[in-house]
Amino acid sequence: MEFKFLKHKWQKIVFKFVLIPVIIIFLLALVVNRYWSPILANKVHDVVLTSSDSLYKVDFTDAELHVLEGKITLYNITLKPDTAVYNQKKKQHLAPNNLVELHVKRLILLHVHPLSLYFSHKLNIGRIILNEPEVNISYQLNHTKDTVLKDHRTAWQKISKSLKSIHIGQILLNDVKFKYHDYSGNKVVISELKEMNLTANDLLIDSATQTDRSRLLYCKDVITELNNYTGKTASGLYTYKIKYLKLSTLKSQLNVEGLQLSPAKTDVFFNKSNSDRFGINIDSLQLNNFDFLSYHKYRRVTASNLVLNRGSIRVFNNPNKTKASTIDKVNTFPNVMIHQIGTDLNIDTLRVRHIDVEYSEFNHKSNKTGTVTFNNTSGHFYNITNNKATLAKNNITNIELTTYFMNRGKLDVQFAFNLTDKDAAFTYKGSLGPMSLQALNPAVMPLAMVKATAGSIKELNFDIQANANIFKGHVGFLYNDLKINIFQADTANDRLKKRSMLSMFANLFVIKHDNPDKAGEAPRSANVIFLRPKDSPFFKTMWKALLEGIKPCVGVDAKKQQETKARIEEHQKNKRDHKARKEARKKRKAEKKRQKELSK
């Protein structure tokens, strides 16, 4: 008996050409769904094994295929290295520097074409989504350059027997739990990342892309985003934070926002370290033409330029001189520090914009801290490198900076650091524009116990050739109406006490109030020769050398200093003698009074 809904001709046509194909496809989907999991498992195992040269194995507990939706869901995927194969490769010096382990509870593949895979041997997937994956990477420096392998085949050549091509439109890893073990140093350094997202676009492995160097891991672009990262250095004395990080391999660009390097509290830091204490805050950092693959494989930082925009750098000189006096602080020189980084570094240009630099030092005599600031610093660093090949071509780092000294006078300065000289040779020269001398008091009051009560700088010029042992050069200092007060430490009241007589003496007989003394006269200048004490760090030595040139310009040359010292010592001796005579007279008077009372 015929169904009633097929009594019309148009209903028969619809049933024949529409419903029957749909039913067949549906039944086919059920069959494929049932038998697809083992087929897919075999394909995945085969691809991973052959493309990794048997180093990695992949497993999953179950797979679901929805043919009509073009969707595959895999459960409990695990990608692990075969340690036996890794150790064998290590003996053969063929082991990679990085080992990866991955675990995902659920992986979703969208817009999959299973028939194309089965019949044409082409794996084509629109999107892969991995939610909350756990990634563990261990790094060990097995080699510093690409190893010459016995198997010269590309990844496509390795999989070509099983697949003609692999194409994945987009791979999304959301909320990644990432742990990184670095075995390259003296002890293992472990880093853990959270709130990280990774997107890989247009992964394509075929005959055309097998040698395409513009792709990273065969992807057109890999974008990594990281939020609110915090970690500690191996010493535990510094905490570093990153508010936001983004890396794009297509643009070869690394962007960082909110970079902080915060030291431990002052007393904790200086009890555990003889080094100077640093603090860094950078609003934004951009690394351009960054060779990520070279960094990933060999820890080489190679880039065309690095841009630091707005922030501050603070340096506090270690006050523990008794502990550090035997340590040569030449390691605080930039051309020495760059070789101690532990990373192969090669940056063509470093650009800084609006950075505040602050140097502080504690004076045990005054029991006070003096601070020198360089505000709104901008400029360029050229050839920042410790790479041997680059140093063979150019071993000089040139620096050109414009800043505002003590947030007042404009200072233009140029440095040239020799990166290969055994004595850490460098030069620095520059000029300081007009500013009030009183703006220097936050530095000179605690450090020299001298206060400028009046005066203005017209110009300061300097040109110094230096190394770890000696600073030589020329200093010119033009100023007007200089007046000072001299202080001494009042330890009982934790303050500085004015030495009135000595201040008056210095203003009347020692310092020159103007340079030049009169209009039309040649100004005073000075040649500098300053021997660096071994425990004197970079910034302090620079300032001391300049001070050696400034003193003669204000009339306090070596001869005048000796004369002044002799006068002060004579004055203090006379003062002591006067006090002693006064005390003697007082005693004699008291004795006479006592004798008079006894006689009664």
Rounded radius of gyration (Å): 37 Å
Mean pLDDT: 82
Percent strand equals 35-45%
Largest sheet: 23 strands, mixed
Q: What is the helix content? A: 25-40%
Poorly predicted residue ranges:
9-32
Query: What sort of overall outline do the alpha carbons produce when their principal axes are compared?
Result: elongated
Indicate the structural class. Answer: alpha+beta
Strand element count = 23
Tally the helices: what do you get? 13
Assembly category? single chain
C-alpha end-to-end distance: 161 Å
Description:
The chain has a domain at 39-146 and 157-232. Helix content is 28%, strand content 44%. It is built from 13 helices and 23 strands. Helix 4 (155-159) links the parallel strand 6 and strand 7 (165-182).
Question: Helix and strand layout, with pairings?
Answer:
Blueprint lengths: L8 H43 L4 E4 L2 E5 L4 E11 L1 H9 L6 E15 L1 H7 L1 E10 L2 E6 L15 H5 L5 E18 L6 E17 L13 E14 L5 E11 L4 E11 L2 H7 L4 E12 L3 H7 L1 E17 L4 H4 L9 H4 L6 E20 L4 E18 L2 H6 L2 E10 L3 E10 L7 E7 L2 E2 L4 H8 L1 E17 L3 E21 L4 E4 L1 H11 L14 E7 L6 H16 L4 H42 L1
Parallel strand pairs: 5-7, 6-7, 13-14
Antiparallel strand pairs: 1-3, 2-3, 3-4, 4-5, 4-6, 7-8, 8-9, 9-10, 10-11, 11-12, 12-13, 14-15, 15-16, 16-17, 17-18, 18-20, 19-20, 20-21, 21-22, 21-23
